[in-house]
Design a protein that fits this description.
Aminopeptidase, Alpha-Beta Plaits, 4-stranded antiparallel β-sheet
Length: about 450
């Protein structure tokens, strides 16, 4: 079948202008003073999708609203649910932005604005991809959009929404673009995400802060105790010491290890990109294997004692740390949380007690490399980039994937359009103009390929 070259039909100036209008709305879900901006963003998206002939509406939740739209004019063809989020991270620290975070600015081929890559730019690329296809006729598949406004605060109301609308949201595949490709010139299909167990460790010593001269050398020190506990959570080979932590893990396959070894990765360049002289980690695994296919334990924050200017000679009564454990297939977050909760108290030095307080978690997932949806995505990306896609897993966690699996019973297809250098969540977040345009083309070609006979059957 001969299909037109959509790249010559794309109105790039208009696509950028529309995205800029969307980026100017400060849709920060964590800020209660911006509720009206959240509503305005939802209406922007609803109106655009309605203009494209979708049945589109704004559904309230207990928090920020969901935008839902559908166009079901392809009987017998697959139904594709496109998920994204229109909320963005807070812009602080404002003083570190070179240009205002909600006034999109193009510098050196990049669109600088909060939400440019996470996730307004990537989500809107799908809207424009649909529009591009509609300029040539009817869509080749049935398309539904689910655009939420609370992803950056943990999607607290999305799971209830999915349960309430499960029948309406039914789809053959769920497409998500909310992450990064492996490298600028490397189209990437993400086929696995790590899970998460997030906890706090609280250590208690004396019943009050103590004078370090009067009590030092005799009283227990919770900060020292906490440091000892943290040190004992890993051995000198970089392995987590929690009993049972590695039980049941799905080992990396030879195919995966070879596939990742063939990727254009350079440890020295990776280390230089984050300004460190070495890349420590679990012995026996490459950097990419540790990032994508092995579990981790990291301290994300630590507190205790005097934090102000100058000195205060005190032995704190309490200390604490926030700890995240990234999990791989075969690990259950509830079980891992229970294991660390049982283990940490046994590490508390004499005179102290240690307690673990669970926060939240998410299940790891891995999808079939050879599914018809992954193969369709590969064909679409090849039409844009002129080369085969690479298959990667991500070190991050996307807890909502579990809800999609449990409630909607549909496979998820990750076709990420951004890059790590886009600096999502950081000051001066950006999205390459070329990546935005390529994202529009990728979306359009993906829908065409998902409607091809060998995929639709």
């Amino acid at each position: 079948m001969t299909t037109p070259d959509l790249s010559v039909l794309l109105d790039r100036d208009r696509a950028e202008a529309e995205l800029f209008d969307l980026l100017r709305i400060p849709s920060v879900s964590a800020d209660p003073t911006r509720t009206a901006d959240m509503a305005a963003t939802a209406e922007f998206l609803r109106a655009k999708l309605a203009d494209l002939g979708f049945t589109a509406r704004i559904d309230p939740t207990a928090g920020h609203p969901v935008v839902y739209a559908e166009r079901l004019n392809a009987p017998g063809q697959p139904t594709v649910l496109i998920y994204g989020h229109y909320d963005v991270q807070p812009e602080a620290p404002l003083e570190e932005w070179v240009t205002p975070p909600f006034e999109p600015t193009v510098r050196d081929g990049r669109i600088y604005a909060r939400g440019s890559t996470d996730d307004k730019g990537q989500a809107y690329a799908h809207v424009k991809g649909v529009e591009l296809l509609l300029s040539q006729g009817e869509l080749p598949v049935n398309v539904k959009f689910l655009l939420e406004g609370e992803e950056e605060i943990g999607s607290p109301n999305l799971e209830p929404y999915l349960r309430d609308h499960a029948g309406e949201l039914k789809a053959d595949v769920i497409v998500i673009s909310d992450g990064s490709r492996f490298a600028p010139d490397v189209p990437t299909i993400t086929y696995g995400v790590r899970g998460l167990s997030y906890v706090e460790i609280h250590v208690q010593g004396a019943n009050r802060d103590l004078h370090s001269g009067s009590y030092g050398g005799a009283a227990p020190n919770p900060i020292n105790a906490l440091a000892e506990i943290i040190t004992r959570l890993k051995d000198d080979q970089g392995r987590v010491t929690i009993p049972g932590f590695y039980d049941g893990i799905d080992d990396l396959t030879d195919t995966e290890r070879q596939m990742w070894a063939d990727l254009p990765h350079d440890d020295a360049a990776f280390a230089a990109s984050i300004g460190v002289p070495a890349l420590p980690g679990e012995a026996g695994y490459t950097t990419l294997e540790r990032l994508w296919g092995r579990p981790t334990l990291d301290v994300n924050g630590i507190w205790g004692g005097y934090q102000g200017e100058g000195s205060k000679t005190v032995i704190a009564a309490k200390a604490g740390a926030k700890v995240s454990m990234r999990l791989v297939p075969g690990q259950d977050p509830e079980r891992i949380t229970r294991l660390i909760s049982e283990y940490v108290p046994t590490l508390a030095p004499a005179g102290t007690t240690a307690v673990v307080h669970p926060h939240h978690g998410g299940r790891p997932f891995k999808f079939d490399l050879n599914s018809p949806y992954n193969l369709a995505a590969n064909r679409a990306l090849k039409r844009v980039f002129g080369r085969e896609a690479v298959f990667a897993r991500t070190g991050g966690s996307i807890p909502i994937v579990a809800a999609f699996n449990d409630i909607l019973h549909a496979p998820v297809l990750f076709v990420d359009l951004g890059l790590n250098e886009d600096a999502p969540h950081s000051p001066n977040e950006s999205f390459a103009v070329t990546d935005y345009h390529n994202g529009i083309l990728t979306s359009a070609y993906l829908l065409q390929e998902l409607g091809a006979p060998d995929t639709a059957e």
